[in-house]
Each structure stands twice: as structure tokens, then as C-alpha cells.
Amino acid sequence: MVKKYRLGNPIETDSVVVSIQEEKSTIPYFDIVQGKNELRFDMDENDHVFGLGETVRGINKRGYIFTSKCADDPNHTEDKRSLYAAQNFFVIWGNGKGFGMYVDTPGCVSFDIGYTDTNVFFIEFEDFDANIYVIDGASILDIVKEFRGIIGKSYIPPRWAFGFGQSRWSYMNEDQVREVVDNYDKNDIPIDSVYLDIDYMERYKDFTVSDERFPDFKAFVEEMKKRNIHLVPIIDAGVKIEEGYDVYEEGVKNDYFCKKENGENLVAAVWPGKVHFPDFLNEDARKWFGDKYKVLLDYGIDGFWNDMNEPAIFYTEDHLKEVFEKIKEYEGKNLDIRSFFDMQGMVGGLANNDEDYRRFYHEYKGKRYRHDKVHNLFGYNMTRAAGEAFERLSPDKRILMFSRSSYIGMHRYGGVWCGDNKSWWSHLLLNIQQMTALNMCGFIYSGADVGGFGADVTEDLLLRWAEFGIFTPLFRNHSAEGTRRQEFYRFTDTESFRNISKLRYALIPYLYSEFMNAVDNDEMLFRPLCFDHPEDDMAYEVEDQLYVGSSIMIAPVYKQNANGRYVYLPEDMKLCRFRSYNDYDVEVLGKGHHYVKAALNEVLVFIKKGHELPLATPASRTEDIDYNNLNYERF
Amino acid sequence: MVKKYRLGNPIETDSVVVSIQEEKSTIPYFDIVQGKNELRFDMDENDHVFGLGETVRGINKRGYIFTSKCADDPNHTEDKRSLYAAQNFFVIWGNGKGFGMYVDTPGCVSFDIGYTDTNVFFIEFEDFDANIYVIDGASILDIVKEFRGIIGKSYIPPRWAFGFGQSRWSYMNEDQVREVVDNYDKNDIPIDSVYLDIDYMERYKDFTVSDERFPDFKAFVEEMKKRNIHLVPIIDAGVKIEEGYDVYEEGVKNDYFCKKENGENLVAAVWPGKVHFPDFLNEDARKWFGDKYKVLLDYGIDGFWNDMNEPAIFYTEDHLKEVFEKIKEYEGKNLDIRSFFDMQGMVGGLANNDEDYRRFYHEYKGKRYRHDKVHNLFGYNMTRAAGEAFERLSPDKRILMFSRSSYIGMHRYGGVWCGDNKSWWSHLLLNIQQMTALNMCGFIYSGADVGGFGADVTEDLLLRWAEFGIFTPLFRNHSAEGTRRQEFYRFTDTESFRNISKLRYALIPYLYSEFMNAVDNDEMLFRPLCFDHPEDDMAYEVEDQLYVGSSIMIAPVYKQNANGRYVYLPEDMKLCRFRSYNDYDVEVLGKGHHYVKAALNEVLVFIKKGHELPLATPASRTEDIDYNNLNYERF
């Protein structure tokens, strides 16, 4: 049962696709705090809070404050209040009852869930305008399903996108891409795609391909396609300012770029240097930008990732000028230390500066909005531009699309990856924990960079991360410039990487079918134990095991040097300890606590009673998986 | 059995106090890698590596690379190779045998423990000069004891330093300090000391007290002393350049400051603005600086913490000039993005810049050394300056002293705190894990900032952290300027903070006696389970439980929203679940795995068979604890 309430004058986000009549009564559960832009809910000691999509910390969100303000911040430490996403749906559940709430506002909003006051949940609005959807249901899963019912079906990628993808910032040319594919094939490690990061472009211009690095891109795409390898280029939000560059010139001519208050196009700097930002909120601009993907579709490309769309801003032209002026004032002075830090902070703070987000405007649904008021819709509408275009340009063929920034609604047009994480064990755990909240908010095709993007990976971390990553729909190994190379074939224990990767391919029939079920029926592919066992107090304590689909539970190892882990079983299950798809031992374990051994090359999968896990014979490409010859492990 | 070997021409560090004849033979276990400044040891799969003092990651150091280069870096994320300390002692143990090694060199050295190659341990030297001590023994604890035997007895603080200390950057004046004490007393939460961070000084000048903020400091110290409160001021490494300031003028006159190559005193900037660094490695300068502590001792002060002694450098005068020049080159240019990042990195990279550490020199044992060659001795010798002075100035009274930067040898003159950690759950775990390696290296009086220094704490984190912190000799709550206030009385559940703090005071007789035993007999106060149970494979897996002294084991809860945790008992034990010193339930648990409930206000203590835990009746000050009336919980 979903009810809609209104606070102030909300800006429409198009995230809800079902027409729901507005209630005249006041919002239930939460009270408006007099004199403040705040809602307040007094939590019971037993209340758990789930949801909010891609955020830091655990599955139960109690005890911290999360701010929806899409942010390009690669340091996902536990004190961060904002990551790339704004996914304002949560469920409060305790003592056998609860409710869900979707706070639909494109502006900045904070969820203070016992941070300020341990047992109080405050929702703090920058502008007190929002559509509030309150969802009642008999269980957490019911509430999630109800919510998913109003936001429209989740994006479905092509099936090959369930294969493994190798990425790097950046494979610099044809030969480097070939080398990657050759090495995977030579080592008999399955792979379906190679990602092209920003350097494939000509001077970082969207919808161009460097003819130095990829002299005959069409032929190269074709060559790869013959090997059943999909190339997945990145698309950035900023359009390079360069005379003669068609995207730039068309955008200027048609007024498709975001403007400053004085009517000039905002000049920001991102990878290409100075850029304009397409006004993705403007329907005409969105259509225009979406059609640009055709350039790459025509090369034979059938997958993309949209990046830098919070939008990330390294600096704006105006702000940089101001900073240079101020630096002059500091120079020569006997800087006191606070002034020195001001100066350092000023230079360091040029990027993604709040002030810059107040320097430009959007034309949205016939009105002009300052960017910060609709900030969280930017990445969403960039991906919507692509998704709507694909429906026109490629109606019969699914195109892979996922985005860094997101807002609920975007889940209909693409998936997400969890952005620029790090090669940290704690980020492997974060990856595990984020999947459930992403699913609640409709983002089913999702995953994090396996092995971590920033910082240097170790072999054991990469292996353990792969052992979890094989269960996420998006299974991609990606890493940053300057960090240790982390393609699976670069380490000592190639055999284990091969076995783990092949296990993924053996699991694809199960994963794809469960994925489709989650999309079609508004279910969650990844579920915390307590969602399935609301009566089991212990199930609420478990933040590192997940149900994956209807038949299995996983318990990944995410600690360095660990040779096993504790597992809680809320019901009797059959443990399969996989070393490879056809080398595993099985053991029936009873409901309760267990310490389970898991060597570095072993994956723990638990099959539910009365269920079966189909296992295909792995192939080097998803296309070659024989769906008609599956083996079943049953319990 | 300790044997000494020589690599190249080592610089003497005075960390080993026993004269050991040098072996003529080659170093055992490790091989010299031809053509490189590296030693290599091929690890067995079962080898564990322990030690290295204050570093990131777990108790078993396998799987990462750690660099001894004392660093002022407040972001102790798991990718960091260097923290504040250089403590180059480790033990390799597996299959019932092993050895210890102490790599005694003041320069930069890296311990690549399976990072580059999973099963290989490389020691990489910047300069291939070191005294290498190889320690054989029948057990890890034997080896540690042997090692501790050659480095001299660990520092012992006054007994009041086992009481609770409250700190903040900064309590700005008398009234703010009084307010803290009043609030602790009003809320009946025990406290023995209040820390004075940098703002107590007059313009951040060492050995001065601001007479605006503390108009009659002597009287104020006296007032506090009457309440049995010890004020503990900070001392920073840099001496402010200011005409008329005696420390500055004496240092210049006597050539006690570190010089550049051209013979001028190095000008660096730290909190006071421009400073010179005393050359603590110069014996005369060390004595001179040490004697300066008398200024504060004469006020009645009997405790200090030495900070910024890596040394931290915000910038050097020369480097800042160069950067301003370079910025001019960037200005006005149509900055390409890489140049922009260069510019940003240049400004951000002014602090603690490697190049700056090559810009100044020390006079050490009759020779001149460029700073980077002896970098890791700087903080050590600052604290040695104080410790040696206290022996002269206060021979009959123990003075509290601990330091941020350290090297083995410094453990004889003071303890350490684990530097500028954060209000992160992961740093509570790090605190737990660091204690054992610190103890191995002789640092027994130690602890981390309870609640975390940087970032904003939450009530539950502070409570859980206090529940562990009550076991660490240094039990101090400290937090940074700009972060949420975190004195124990500022939260909702004052009762639990009171109970936990009182439990500390009830434990002091046990902790102090076990501390003294650890010091006197070269034992470890904190021990990983496997040190006591080398034959128990499972004990090696446990990285979040510790033996504390001879009679108890603790299992802190370090996860948000957790109401219990898994515990492994290597032997039968008696669990005491403390809500307060006189409200706890007991239960005998058998050897093996257990899931143990621990509500937010409960502390898990396990008593070993045949042992007893004495519990005092808590007092508001350590001085008032009645050691003659103890209750005993026995098993």
C-alpha cells in the first residue's frame, strides 16, 4: 500500500511512473520539526533501517548520517556522508512491523539515523520540498516490492554483460586490448568484454575515437566481435570546448549546454580540459545527446559506461581565476599557518566545489533551476538520454549501460557500478553490503570494481574479491592509472583465478534467470538474511552473508590471511565448498552457528532445502554456454 | 639466542643496549638478492609474520608491504605503508618453528611480506647498511623476550597515568579545563588528567604558557592538583622563530638547530608558523632541549606528550618559494588537466615532502648526516631528550611521557599513542590489532585516541571504543578541532559511560600489576591467542581477541549495530559479561567456538582456568583506589 504526501512544492523527478493521488492528511510516522526543514521519527531500540542504496557502512544504516548529494569522491571511508548516488528509499523494521519511505526530491537531503541522537531518525532538507511516498506492507520484502512497483521495471542488459569484463584506466590502443584478450584466452580464463577508459577518445572528446590509437576502429570492433569480445567505451558528462568538434558546435548552436546566470555557457574543466555540460534535464538536449551514441553504435559497439556525471568538476574557469588572484595575495606574506592551510584548501578545494554547483542552471520541464536544486538528477538524466536513445536506435537489441552517478528512476535505463573504490579489504565488505540496498532501490544490474580501482591490490585480495564478484551481475575487474596491474593472469596462482572465473560462467544460467526474476517480479537478487527470516533475531546481526536469488546463500571471506569464517545459518543448508565448478565438497549443516573453513581458493555456497543450483559447463564466452546441459546440485 | 650481523656500514641507533659481538658468517634465513639492496626469505605457506609495531592491517602482517619511514599521515587507511613509527622487529613463525629479526637502521626500509610475490618476504633497503639481529627461540614469546632483553627495560609512567585522560584539540583556557573536570565529577565518571593541546602555549611556542588563556598557570596547576587532576601539556618538535624567545635565541646562539647544506638553519613551518628544528641527534642540543621541560615541571606539571616529531613539516621556506614561482608559470595558461593536477599536487604536496627531508642535516655522534639518512631517529631522540632530562630533573618522581613518532630504543624513555586516528570502527579494530605488535617492540605504555581523533564520532562507537580502551595502559579520549565533541558526558547514555569508565578503575590494580610484570620480565601485556597457544591452528586465525596480562582474555565488539560477536576459546574459560564493575553475569564456556551476546553497554572478559581477576571498588581518581580491598572473580 503506497501513499503519497507532499512537502512544499516538489520538483518532479520522473522517478515514480505510477500515478498516485496525493493524500490530504499529514505524513504518518514522521513528525515535522517546528521551525526546521526536518522530519523526525523516534525509533524503537529494535528498529532496523535498511536501504539508501549506494552508501558507506553496513546493511543496517542505524548510527550514521547519510546525505544525498551525488559526489565524485574516491575515498569511500566510513565517515563519508555522500557517495555517487542519491537513492532516497529506506525501510524501518522492528518488532515484526515497519514501513518504507521514499523521499523524492532532487535536492540535498540528509538522513540522520541516530547519529545526532541515538534513537531518533531525522530527515533534514535543504529545501523543504519533496514528494513523500509511505509504503506499508506485511514484511520488508513486501514493502520493497510495493516500492519497486511504483518506480518501473529495472534495466536489463544483454546476456553477454553477465560475462567477465576486464578494464583498466586505460588500455591505450588496439594492441593493448588484443594483449588482454590474448592473455585471458591463453590462460583459459573466460572473458566477454574489455572496457575502454578515457584514452580511447581523441583528446577526451565524447563520441570520438583516437585514430592514432585505434586507426581502424570499425575493423577492430569487428575483429573483437569475431572473438566474441565486446568493447565497452566510457562516455563522460563534459563536452570538450574545441572549434570544429561537432558535439561542441551543435551544443552551442542549439543552446543545449548549462548556462551561468549571465547566460554564458558554464566553462568547467574535466579530463578534456575545458568543457561545457550538456543540460541533460532539458528534453531536447537529452534527445540530442542520446542520439550521439549512434556514432559508436555504428562502429558495432553495444555497451557503454557513463562517467563523471555527478557531475565531477575539476575546476570552473571562473573559480580558478579567483583562486589565482587570491594566491597572489598570499605570496610573499609571512603566511601564518591558518592562512597557509586556507591557501592549500583553496587550491585543493577547487574540485567538486559546492559553490560551483551554484554557478549554473538547467532548463527543466519549462522552468529554470539552479543546478544545486536539481543536482541529483544530472547523472540520472545523462543515462536516461542514452537509454531513451537506445530504445529509438536499437529497439531490437539490448545495449549494456551503467552509470557512476544515479538517482532512483535511472534504474530503468541502466545499472550502476559503485564508482572509484579502492583495493581495500574493507571495500570488498562494502561491496557485499551495498548490493542489498542497491537492489532495494531498483538497481539490479550492478557491481563494484573487483580488486578495487584505486590503491595497489594484492593477489589474495583480488582472489577473495573475485570469489564474491562472480555473484554480482556486473563482474568487472578495473583499476586506476598508476596502481598495480591487476588482470587475473598477472599473478602467481593463475589456476585459482581460472577456476573462480569459470565458476562464474558455470553460474550464469542460475544468475541470469534469478536476475530476470528479480526484474520481472520486483524482487531483490541480493537479500540480507533478515529479509527472508524476519522472525529470527540472529539474522538481523548478520551483515556479511547474502541470499543470492531464490536458492542459494553466500558467505564471502573478506579478511586478509583468513582461512575460514563464521557463518550463521537461519535454516538447514547444504554447503558446497567450490574450488572449481566441478571440484567441490558438500556437507549438510544445521541451522545455527558454524565456523567454516575456506582456503584462499575456495568459495562457500549454501543451497537452501528443497532447492537446486544449476551449474553449466563453463565456456570462454557467455555465448558458448550450453544452457541445455546443466548439472544440478540439489538439497 | 641473539646473534648480530652487519650489512654495510650501519649508523648506530642506541636502540640495543647490550653489547653483542658481531658474527662473521652470513645472515641466516634471508639471502642477499644479488645486485639489489634486498634480503629475501622464502616463506612457507604456514609461516605467520608478527611485529613491526605501529602499522596498518592485521596482527599477521603477511600480504602487504610496510615501510619504516616515520610519517605524519592522519589517514590510516589500509593502503598506507608508513605511519608514525619505525619499529623494525618481527617474528616469522610456522610449523612449530621460527625466528625473530631486528633490522636496526635509521634509514628507510621496506618489509614486503608477500605483497610482490605471495610467498616471498623481501626486505628492501634505501641504504644497504644495518645491524641485523637474528633471534632464535623455542616459541614466539621466547623470541620476543630475548629481543626485549637486548633493547632495555620499557618506560614506566606514574600510576595516575593509568587513570582516564580527557583531551581535545584544544581546551582553550582555564575555564574550559575546569568545565571538563566539573562535568566528569558531576557525572561521577572517573578522570585523572586533562590534556592541553597546542593552544595552551603563547603563539605555539614550546615551554611557554599563554598568559591570556592561563593567567596564573602555576596556581591553576595547583588548583587542579588539589582535585587530583594532572594537566598534560603537548610539546612540539619545532621551535618558533621569534626574536626575544629564549628557546629560539639559545638554539641559534649555540648552533642547536638543524642546518641546511649552506650552513643556515632550516626554516620550516609548523603550528607556530616558521620554526627551526632542534637537532635532537646532537647530544648537546638534546640535553639543552631536555632541560627546557623544567619550565613546565616547575609549574607543577608531571606529564607531557611529544608531538609533530616525525618531524611533521607543513612546508619549508625554500620549497614554498619554489612553489609560488611555479604557480606563476601556470597562471593564465590554458591549463591542460595534467598540468592542473601537477599544480594542485604541488600545493597539496608541500607538507611532509620527501625532498624537504633531504634539505637539512644533523650532527650525530661526531658526524654530519643528511636528515633522510637518520629520519627515523628524530622523534625517538626528542623523547629521549625529555626522558634523559627527567632522570636528572626529577629522579624521584615518575613523569608521564609519550610520543607520536618512535623508533625502538625510545621505549625506554616514553610510551606512544597511535597518532591521529579517526572515528572509524575500522580504527577501533586497528587499535586492538596494533597493541600486540607495539608490545613486541617494547612499547608497553601505549594506546590510541579512544573515540578517534579525526572525523565525527557516534555514541555507539565511543562506547565500544571505551570498552576496549579501558584495557590499554594509556586510556585517553582525544578529538580534533572541527569534529564532534566527544567527552563521555556529552551523550545520552551517561550511565553506560560511567559504568565502563568505573570498570577501568576497578581493573587498575590488575592492569598496573600486569603492566609492571610485562616491563620487569620483558613480557607482553597484550598477546594474540596464538602466542599463548602455538599448537592451536585456530588460534592463528583470531585477530580480534587478546590476552591481557596473565589471567584474562578480551573479545571487544568493534562493529556498529552488533549485539554480540563470535569468540574462539583456545581453552575453557569463565566469561564475565560486565555491565559495571559490580553488575555482571558469569558463565563457564568450553574450548571452541561461541557466539556471545554483548549489548552496547556490556564488556566481555574471559578468565583463564586457575586464575583470578582482582576488582577494586572504583574511585574518581586512581589515587583513591583502595588496593587493600579487592574483590576477586576466580575460575
UniProtKB/TrEMBL annotation, chains A, B:
It comes from the Bacteria. Keywords: Glycosidase, Hydrolase. GO terms for molecular function: carbohydrate binding; hydrolase activity, hydrolyzing O-glycosyl compounds. Residues 155-513 form the Glycoside hydrolase family 31 TIM barrel domain. InterPro entries: Gal_mutarotase_sf_dom (IPR011013), GH (IPR017853), Glyco_hydro_31_AS (IPR030458), Glyco_hydro_31_C (IPR048395), Glyco_hydro_31_N_dom (IPR025887), Glyco_hydro_31_TIM (IPR000322). Pfam families: Gal_mutarotas_2, Glyco_hydro_31_2nd, Glyco_hydro_31_3rd. Residues 523-611 form the Glycosyl hydrolase family 31 C-terminal domain. Residues 36-112 form the Glycoside hydrolase family 31 N-terminal domain. GO terms for biological process: carbohydrate metabolic process. Belongs to the glycosyl hydrolase 31 family. This is Glycoside hydrolase family 31 Gh31B. It comes from Butyrivibrio hungatei.
